[in-house]
From TrEMBL:
Keywords per UniProt: DNA-binding
GO molecular function, one term: DNA binding
Source species: Rhizobium viscosum (Arthrobacter viscosus)
Lineage: superkingdom: Bacteria
Protein name per the record: DNA-binding MarR family transcriptional regulator
Coiled coil: none
Amino acid sequence: METPKDPTSIDNRISEGLTRIAIAMRSDEWSKAEKAGLKPTQLAILEFLAGRDSARVKEIAAHLGVSQPTATDSIAALERKGLVAKASAPGDKRATAIHITAEGKAAFGSVSPIETAAMEAARSLSPGEQEGLLLSLVKMIRHLQEADAIPIQRMCTSCRYFRPYQHSGAAKPHHCNFVNAAFGRNELRIDCRDHETADPATRAATWDAFEKG
Ligand code: SF4
């Protein structure tokens, strides 16, 4: 048992802390989904598809961290409600891709601006603490990607448009080639709709430059 004299390792306690936060976030997800008359997995699928033209079931399942049959069931429920539809996958007419319908966008839009308990908690941090936490999350997510625990997320650090520390000065050191603009450390994206995954060698070099910066 943990005592003040004999604490568990800090990595264990960080993991415990993240688990506590995940509980609040799950509750947030249920509240938002209920407002839209959906299950959390269904809402998460709409959120995933809202930033894309379409996606295959395999991609959706990987992003959500669920099995393909689970994703298929949720997609079928959304299709019955008219919130998503199937079509041929771009570049492969034999494969099926899922896209969000106008009704699906409206359902997602009706709940996406809702303030959550997790967002409120993040706002309670100082700007410096927020930036530090964002950077820590980027590093942890990147580690999980490298360990194949999660698929590559749409973060700046894995994007082919990202140029870390291209600019002198602390305010906006990074550069996004997609919009050709400088941006700050606190503007790093975790899930950017314009993200395009860089090839492995570029991702490794970008991460190196990012860490050294
Ligand atoms: S396109 Fe998005 S993910 Fe890529 S560098 Fe620009 S802001 Fe970051």
